[in-house]
Specification:
Structural class: alpha/beta
Strand order of the largest sheet: 2-3-1-4-5
CATH superfamily: P-loop containing nucleotide triphosphate hydrolases
Cofactor: Mg(2+)
Main location: cytoplasm
Mean pLDDT: 96
Keywords: ATP-binding, Cytoplasm, Kinase, Nucleotide-binding, Nucleus, Pyrimidine biosynthesis, Transferase
Largest sheet: 5 strands, parallel
CATH architecture: 3-Layer(aba) Sandwich
Low-confidence stretches: none
Radius of gyration: 16 Å
Helix content: 40-55%
CATH class: Alpha Beta
Strand content: 5-15%
Shape: globular
Number of domains: 1
Family: Belongs to the adenylate kinase family. UMP-CMP kinase subfamily.
GO molecular function, one term: ATP binding
Bound molecules: P1-(adenosine-5'-P5-(uridine-5')pentaphosphate, magnesium ion
Distance between the termini: 24 Å
Order of helices and strands: EHEHHHEHEHHEH
Length: 190
């Protein structure tokens, strides 16, 4: 165990399950810093970094960007935040992401918040989001769903076996989902 007491919660769930929406609520009530791996990767594309084109192509195909790229962005954002409580949203997305994060940072998540939502509902939400995301088209959405089931759900299962998963029914309206989320984070208000 490291010297500094850092609290990390992984926020996982399928594309459009509401990770970003609920993280914004958690930040307001519980003093966490929200780090969306997808947002950090999209910012990296915009910044014109040398990895930008590679990241853009992978996101368009719904593929998972190499761990070292994502982990570097997460570590930098954690340092720059000055906070010690983090919601890491949309990461780890596969077993390799998970193992690499553990090895590099030595951080174990406090728990995993898992937003459970049927694909048809997630598809509806993504197709009506209209935020100009390159990956919100039906072809890429189907690829994202497939990668989620094949690569990301095993990460949830790994933490579930350790008793660390807090599963939320994410198909309900936003405020009802947040009521369930609040119950899980209540200890952090102390
Ligand atoms: N909405 C939200 N909650 C709702 C509710 N309860 N009822 C009705 N509507 C609801 O929500 C999506 C939409 O639904 C919004 O319009 C919202 O208002 C509405 P949002 O909160 O944005 O859902 P979220 O789960 O955050 O969806 P997102 O599309 O961001 O999830 P993804 O996991 O697909 O996207 P992410 O940005 O994490 O990753 C994108 C890509 O980046 C990946 O496919 C991958 O290619 C790459 N990536 C990596 O390679 N590595 C990483 O570590 C991370 C990403
Ligand atoms: Mg998101």
């Amino acid at each position: 165990p490291g010297e500094k007491k850092i609290t990390v919660v992984f926020v996982l769930g399928g594309p459009g399950s509401g990770k970003g929406t609920q993280c914004a609520n958690i930040v307001k009530h519980f003093g966490f810093t929200h780090l969306s791996a997808g947002d950090l990767l999209r910012a990296e594309i915009k910044s014109g970094s040398e990895n930008g084109t590679m990241i853009q192509n992978m996101i368009r195909e719904g593929k998972i960007v190499p761990s070292e790229v994502t982990i570097k962005l997460l570590q930098k954002a954690m340092l720059e935040s000055g906070n010690d409580k983090f919601l890491i949203d949309g990461f780890p997305r596969n077993t390799e992401n998970r193992a690499a994060f553990e090895n590099v940072t030595k951080i174990e998540p406090k728990f995993v918040l898992f937003f459970d939502c049927p694909e048809e509902e997630m598809e509806r939400r993504l197709l009506s989001r209209n935020q100009g995301r390159d990956d919100d088209n039906i072809e890429t959405i189907r690829k994202r769903f497939k990668v989620f089931v094949e690569s990301s759900l095993p990460v949830v299962e790994y933490y579930d076996a350790k008793g660390k998963v807090r599963k939320i029914d994410a198909a309900k309206p936003i405020d009802e989902v947040f009521e369930a989320v609040k119950a899980i984070f209540a200890p952090f208000n102390a």
